[in-house]
Amino acid sequence: MVRRGVETFLDMVDGIELIGEAADGDQAIRRIARLEADGNPPHVVLMDLVMPGTSGASTTETLIKRHPHLRIIAMTSFAETARVHTALQAGAAGFILKDAEADELAAAIRAVSRGELHLDPAVTRELIRSLQESSRTAAERLTDREQEALALLAQGLSNLQIAESLFISERTARTHVSNIIMKLEVESRTQAALWAIRHGFGNWEGSGTNNSSS
Questions:
Q1: Which residues have CB under 8 Å from 168's CB, separation 6+?
Q2: Is residue 134 very low, low, confident or very high in pLDDT (cuts 50, 70, 90)?
Q3: Helix, strand, or coil here: 95?
Q4: Rounded CA gap, 155 and 193, in Å?
Q5: Dihedral pair phi/psi, residue 191, rounded to 5°
Q6: Which residues contact 162 (CB under 8 A, 6 or more apart)?
Q7: Distance (Å, rounded) from C-alpha 42 to C-alpha 46?
Q8: What percent of the chain has pLDDT over 90?
Q9: Whole-number Å distance between alpha carbons of 204 and 154
């Protein structure tokens, strides 16, 4: 029923032509491959994030790898915003609520076809709130000492320099850095430093830091 409604609407919109549809991710992958082989590839795909079988995010990732020219709009309900970040990481060019007005859908299609991002304002606000909450939770997992070490890590200091700044051994500094990487769920000290900069840890000045010399 949803696909029929979208088809009916798009038939009335100038400059937009519906050339295919699919009931699930696997079918979409096959049909887009066939359209590509026939020389009539789609420019924009509307992708439901919740489908039978392969998820919308996984389907998006597969399609982007096989057809880099594709622009994919993730369609989500307000309750599914947790999936939006995954879809964007997979390569989606934007997202729109499933209950969006018809003119909003047309605007989204036109925007991504021009190479722009289209982010539904309501979902964007919820996504930002969710990411901020996640960041606060991650930071709260760090001990005070680990937060101090993270701030110094964000300034580009080595383990030895962190140790000297915090008056601890290099081994202890190395342990703090390992714990930081694990708790922030990143893969390297570089990613931890970037996380710290994005979340305001790079300008920390604590009582334990002493750069004076005698």
A1: 176
A2: low
A3: strand
A4: 8
A5: -65, -35
A6: 149, 152, 153, 173, 176, 177
A7: 11
A8: 43
A9: 10
